[in-house]
Specification:
Layout (H helix, E strand, L loop, with lengths): L8 E3 L5 E3 L13 H4 L3 E4 L2 H11 L4 E9 L6 E8 L5 E5 L10 H8 L4 E4 L3 H11 L6 E3 H13 L11 H8 L7 H10 L11 H12 L1 H10 L4 H15 L1 H7 L18
Parallel strand pairs: 3-6, 4-7, 7-8
Antiparallel strand pairs: 1-2, 4-5, 5-6
Helix pairs in contact: 5-9, 5-10
């Protein structure tokens, strides 16, 4: 384990916070949403962080999501959740432990072209990781993009932009377990936009965060992959790269961001 040196970040605006800081189908455990949360680990120490990363870095496909306040170019990341295909979920407390993202393995996982990151509508997460921690997510399978590409392939219809679609709607379409508390938390966001900066985290908060990635891998990803051939999977990963960098390219500007030259890594059958 290696800690990369870093500077303290300060964020100003409405608030101020200081942070110290695949072509084969994934084989996953068959579980219901009721027991998906039994394998959740809340990561709030450096030892836990290193132990979790040593497991995750061996995987070829993971699910990733972030929670925070006003996520985007000027937001603050509170949590990063990672789900493995065996049902394990790790919720990293980045708000209290920004130093986690300067453990070399964490950056390696997020920027690796050999680990596919399954995400849902990841524009804001990508922008926040880049502006707050200079991390460039690489090799992304965005489920919003995947739904659009799958529909375009089978229906032959190309839209000008990729329409937004909710995670639970996608789960319904593809027969994956839904996020049980998604709608309930929407009302909380409206009245308390900095909700994810609260500490201590409640069990409901941890369960919600975990479900955001438990829905994606292996369930939704596997269901989408059943509709993909090799070329379509390649298109999804390539389009996800363009889609994920939208906020960076259009808000920060091209002068401050150069799109990485990425060759999507498509998993071959074993």
């Amino acid at each position: 384990m290696q800690l990369i040196s870093f500077q303290t970040f300060s964020w100003s605006g409405r608030y101020q916070v200081v942070l110290t800081a695949c072509r084969s189908t994934v084989v996953g455990v068959v579980v219901s949403m009721g027991n998906l949360l039994s394998n959740v680990t809340y990561v709030d120490t450096l030892d836990k962080c290193v132990s979790a990363l040593q497991r995750i870095i061996r995987d070829s496909v993971i699910a990733v999501d972030c929670e925070g306040a006003a996520l985007g170019v000027n937001g603050v990341i509170s949590l990063i959740q990672i789900a493995r295909t065996n049902g394990e979920v790790y919720v990293f407390d980045i708000f209290q432990h920004g130093e986690f993202l300067y453990v070399s393995e964490f950056r390696s996982i997020l920027e690796s072209s050999n680990i596919l990151k399954v995400m849902h509508d990841c524009k804001a997460d990508y922008a926040n990781l880049f502006t707050q921690f200079q991390i460039r997510l690489t090799n992304i399978f965005d489920t919003t993009v995947a739904h659009y590409e799958i529909g375009s392939y089978y229906d032959g219809i190309k839209l000008r932009g990729i329409p937004t679609i909710g995670l639970n709607k996608l789960c319904e379409i593809y027969g994956a377990p839904k996020h049980a508390t998604k709608d309930m938390f929407k009302d909380i966001y409206k009245s308390r936009p900095y909700f994810w900066l609260d500490r201590p985290l409640t069990k409901d908060m941890l369960d919600y965060a975990a479900e955001d990635v438990s829905c994606l891998v292996p369930h939704l990803y596997n269901a989408m992959m059943k509709k993909c051939n090799k070329q379509l999977e390649y298109n999804i990963i390539e389009s996800s790269t363009t889609y994920s960098t939208y906020l960076i390219r259009n808000i920060i500007g091209i002068s401050r961001y150069t799109r990485p030259n990425i060759v999507p890594q498509v998993q071959t059958p074993k």
